[in-house]
């Protein structure tokens, strides 16, 4: 498959500059476009309406939230949901938000650093044991994560990391996908660049830091966005390794809100909106990286 | 193999790289900067974390599964294959509950995978056409996926609430007089879990298909057109064969993702009615983290894992067999 090797440095063209490649387009008459657009439109309403409902409900009073017929625009604009949420000492949402940001950023930085270093050595250096290391890393990409749940709980406990951010930041930082993904890109960098750097007296670290990484901003950004999203949305692991209300992340916190607030939908939806804002913002800005990352990771098979 | 021996063998085989470009193709072996320990130093930070949290647990988990490993007991006696045998003992409550949860996972895979393979393909075919607003529609369909299961769970719990939920209200307007118990009774719980999952993750598969569609050689379509092929023929004889590797990937990864289902059940149905939608992962997590029977839970994960490996291998073989025909 030709697309296995990521496009070189300026890979912005990966996502949407591909219009010109679709030359097999049949000529369509304007009227055949009407049902086509209709289907697209109906589908996008179905996809987006629930998200709009979530935002709308978070600004309702508790009464309006359950009123029938459903009110898409809050009859009485209210921030009660947010007030309830922010003032409940049992649900320190701002703390959860801070925890999630901290974990997401630390996790992402660690993934980028460890994966790019490892990928560089696996892509551009020759050493005994290289194939074994690469084989081990790639093969674990196919082992389902739940296999590691019980043993990792005990290992994290042995480090005394239960109920701390370390439990969320460190164990998931060994990203086999990240190594594989960056290695594919590093392989495509011309060797002349490295040779020129060596002639200028650069050592391996300088080549990596000054030549390879600056050329790799697009794949690094893709990996950063994917890692942050994965960390932000992680649900099962935080649910079980964090206990104290103070140390929860937003997704784990939402699960407790759900049982604590029952049908106080404005408060729960306010929590959901809070957990969605960062990812929706990142998505709006980094959409092409996310979609390129997903389609590239999809093509590895 | 060290750098020098590799260059040596290449020279002996008469394949010595002639240009710098050729050399760089096998990893820039000629670049000699730093000492022999450099590759290991670069690899070390990753390998330490990888070793401690991936390689060690893979083995440690097997060790745990061979013991009666209760988190709170000081003694963890060796039980050999006891934990595994218990899961195949029809008189044990654990076995009954475990296989009930495996049944839930199996049903979910069976119900969800066909939708998650076919609908995104249709969507990708639509979105692969050139039309104004294509990027916008792609973005919209993918958006729910970035939200994460915790948000999806609480959102749909609201929408599907039997009494005050939006869905039942609009169904009522359409003439459905019955109040549908989306979160509490079969078969509705299954419709809910599958429907919400399709809504949530459909964009992911669609994007993978889109990338695959763009990899198909366009001259094949031109040739088909010259031969007077209809749209349907084009799809059947050019698009589908061209998508075969992508299709295999989508089917495999969707089965694995569906077999991993946890959050939707945990948040939406809570396993209701009477544990019918309690999935394998949910039961494993409860056994390990709530009852602290971690040896038992580890044994369950390995059985599920073996089953999934088997299914993936079968899937792979089926695709290859088809290719030969």
UniProtKB/TrEMBL annotation, chain A:
Residue ranges of the TM segments: 34-55, 96-120, 132-154, 166-186, 207-232, 265-286
Keyword Lipid metabolism: no
Keyword Transport in record: yes
Pfam family, one: BPD_transp_1
Signal peptide annotation: none
Gene Ontology terms describing biological process: transmembrane transport
PANTHER family (alphabetical): ABC TRANSPORTER PERMEASE PROTEIN MG189-RELATED, ABC TRANSPORTER PERMEASE PROTEIN MG189-RELATED-RELATED
Family affiliation: Belongs to the binding-protein-dependent transport system permease family.
Protein's recorded name: Binding-protein-dependent transport systems inner membrane component
The species this protein was found in: Beutenbergia cavernae (strain ATCC BAA-8 / DSM 12333 / CCUG 43141 / JCM 11478 / NBRC 16432 / NCIMB 13614 / HKI 0122)
Automatic annotation (TrEMBL), chain B:
Cellular component GO terms held in the UniProt record: plasma membrane
Record's compositionally biased regions (Polar residues): 1-18
Subcellular location, principal: membrane
Originating species: Beutenbergia cavernae (strain ATCC BAA-8 / DSM 12333 / CCUG 43141 / JCM 11478 / NBRC 16432 / NCIMB 13614 / HKI 0122)
Its membrane topology: Multi-pass membrane protein
Stretches the record annotates as Disordered: 1-30
The protein, known as: Binding-protein-dependent transport systems inner membrane component
Highest taxon listed in the record's lineage: Bacteria
Annotated Gene3D superfamilies: MetI-like
InterPro entries cross-referenced by the UniProt entry: ABC_transporter_permease, MetI-like, MetI-like_sf
Classification of source organism: Bacteria, Bacillati, Actinomycetota, Actinomycetes, Micrococcales
One Pfam family per UniProt: BPD_transp_1
Subcellular location: Cell membrane
Domain ABC transmembrane type-1: 102-315
GO biological process: transmembrane transport
Keyword terms of this UniProt record: Cell membrane, Membrane, Transmembrane, Transmembrane helix, Transport
Family statement drawn from the similarity comment of this UniProt entry: Belongs to the binding-protein-dependent transport system permease family.
TM segment ranges: 40-63, 107-127, 139-159, 179-202, 246-267, 299-319
């Amino acid at each position: 498959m030709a697309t296995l090797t990521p496009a070189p440095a300026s890979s912005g063209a990966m996502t949407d500059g591909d219009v010109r490649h679709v030359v097999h387009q049949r000529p369509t008459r304007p009227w055949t476009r009407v049902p086509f657009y209709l289907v697209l439109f109906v589908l996008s309403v179905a996809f987006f309406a629930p998200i709009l409902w979530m935002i709308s409900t978070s600004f309702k009073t508790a009464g309006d939230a359950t009123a029938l017929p459903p009110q898409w625009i809050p009859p009485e604009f209210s921030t009660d949901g947010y007030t309830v949420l922010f003032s409940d000492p049992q649900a320190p949402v701002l703390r959860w938000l801070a925890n999630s940001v901290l974990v997401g950023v630390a996790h992402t930085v660690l993934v980028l650093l460890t994966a790019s270093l490892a990928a560089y050595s696996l892509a551009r250096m020759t050493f005994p044991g290289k194939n074994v290391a690469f084989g081990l890393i790639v093969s674990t990409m196919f082992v389902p994560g739940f296999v590691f749940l019980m043993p990792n709980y005990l290992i994290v406990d042995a480090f005394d990391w239960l109920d701390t951010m370390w439990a969320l930041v460190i164990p998931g930082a060994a990203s086999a996908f990240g190594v594989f993904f960056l290695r594919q890109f590093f392989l495509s960098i011309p060797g002349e660049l490295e040779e020129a750097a060596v002639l200028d007296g650069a050592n391996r670290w300088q080549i990596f830091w000054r030549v390879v990484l600056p050329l790799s901003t697009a794949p690094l950004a893709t990996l950063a966005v994917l890692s942050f999203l994965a960390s932000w949305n992680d649900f099962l692991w935080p649910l079980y390794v964090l206990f104290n209300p103070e140390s929860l992340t937003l997704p784990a916190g939402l699960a407790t809100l759900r049982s604590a607030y029952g049908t106080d939908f404005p408060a729960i939806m306010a929590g959901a909106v809070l957990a969605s804002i960062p990812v929706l913002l990142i998505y709006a800005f980094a959409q092409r990286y996310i979609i390129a990352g997903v389609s590239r990771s999809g093509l590895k098979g | 193999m060290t750098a020098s021996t590799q260059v040596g063998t290449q020279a002996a085989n008469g394949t010595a790289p002639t240009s710098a470009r050729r050399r760089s193709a096998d990893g820039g072996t000629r670049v000699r900067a730093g000492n022999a320990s450099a590759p290991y130093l670069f690899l070390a930070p990753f390998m330490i974390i990888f070793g401690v949290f991936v390689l060690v647990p893979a083995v440690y988990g097997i060790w745990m599964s061979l013991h009666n490993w209760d988190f709170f007991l000081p003694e963890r006696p060796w039980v050999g294959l006891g934990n595994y045998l218990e899961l195949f003992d029809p008189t044990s409550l654990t076995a009954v509950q475990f296989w009930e949860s495996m049944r839930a996972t199996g049903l979910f895979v069976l119900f969800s995978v066909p939708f998650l393979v076919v609908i995104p393909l249709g969507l990708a075919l639509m979105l692969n056409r050139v039309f104004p607003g294509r990027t916008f529609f792609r973005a919209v369909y993918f958006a729910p996926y970035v939200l994460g299961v915790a948000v999806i769970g609480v959102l749909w719990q609201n929408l599907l609430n039997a009494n005050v939920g939006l869905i039942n209200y609009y169904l009522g307007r359409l003439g459905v007089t019955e109040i549908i118990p989306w979160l509490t009774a079969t078969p509705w719980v299954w419709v809910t879990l599958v429907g919400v999952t399709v809504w949530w993750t459909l964009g992911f598969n669609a994007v993978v298909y889109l990338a695959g569609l763009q990899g198909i050689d366009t001259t094949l379509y031109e040739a088909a057109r010259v031969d007077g092929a209809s749209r349907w023929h084009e799809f059947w004889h050019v698009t589908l064969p061209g998508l075969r590797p992508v299709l295999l990937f989508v089917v495999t990864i969707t089965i694995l993702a569906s077999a991993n289902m946890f959050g939707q059940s945990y948040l939406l149905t809570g396993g209701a009615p009477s544990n019918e939608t309690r999935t394998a992962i949910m039961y494993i997590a409860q056994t390990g983290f709530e009852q602290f029977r971690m040896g038992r839970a580890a044994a369950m994960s390995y059985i599920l894992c073996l089953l999934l490996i088997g299914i993936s291998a079968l899937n792979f073989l089926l695709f290859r067999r088809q290719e030969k025909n």
